[in-house]
Design goal:
The strands form two sheets. Strands 1, 2, 3, 6, 7 and 8 form a six-stranded mixed sheet that branches. This protein has two helices and eight strands. The protein is α/β, with parallel strands linked by helices.
């Protein structure tokens, strides 16, 4: 499981020109699910994200988590995070999970974060063609891969 996390001042997801959801201060999480991901990957990653101290405290130091600042979270599925580009110019997505498995873990990921943060987690629509607008704060962009827990 791989995520690209953006600390944002605001973000929104539109589908076919209609805004599906929007958030204020918080995290926009692009989530890519790999074919060999497990429930343990979801649990580990959600706990990691909920405790990640990437928001500024009163002294301007990144010392607070999304929970500490009561920030919002928006999750967008993105299988392209598992693109392999070693050969040729067309990315290969053989490492991405099949649709049914990916959708299962996408739902589980949102539910796990909802339970940990005790608040609604907003999301795009799995498999949809989405347009994302965001105001990156910092910018702060973090990449986490459950296959590389260093």
């Amino acid at each position: 499981m791989r995520v690209v996390i953006q600390r944002v001042k605001s973000a929104s997801v539109s589908i076919q020109g209609n805004v599906k959801c929007q958030i204020k201060v918080g995290l926009l999480i692009f989530l890519g699910i790999q074919k060999d991901d497990t429930d343990n990957d979801v649990i580990w990653l959600c706990n990691k994200i909920s405790l990640l101290r990437i928001f500024s405290d009163d002294y301007g130091k990144m010392n607070l988590s999304v929970k500490d600042v009561n920030g919002d979270i928006m999750v967008v599925s993105q299988f392209t995070l598992h693109a392999k580009t070693k050969k040729g110019n067309r990315p290969s997505y053989v490492e991405a999970a099949p649709t049914e498995k990916a959708n299962y873990f996408y739902k589980m990921f949102k539910l796990e974060l909802t339970n940990i943060l005790e608040k609604k987690v907003f999301s795009g629509k799995f498999g949809a063609d989405m347009q994302i607008k965001l105001v990156n704060d910092g910018p702060v962009t973090i990449i986490i891969d459950t296959k590389n827990k260093q």
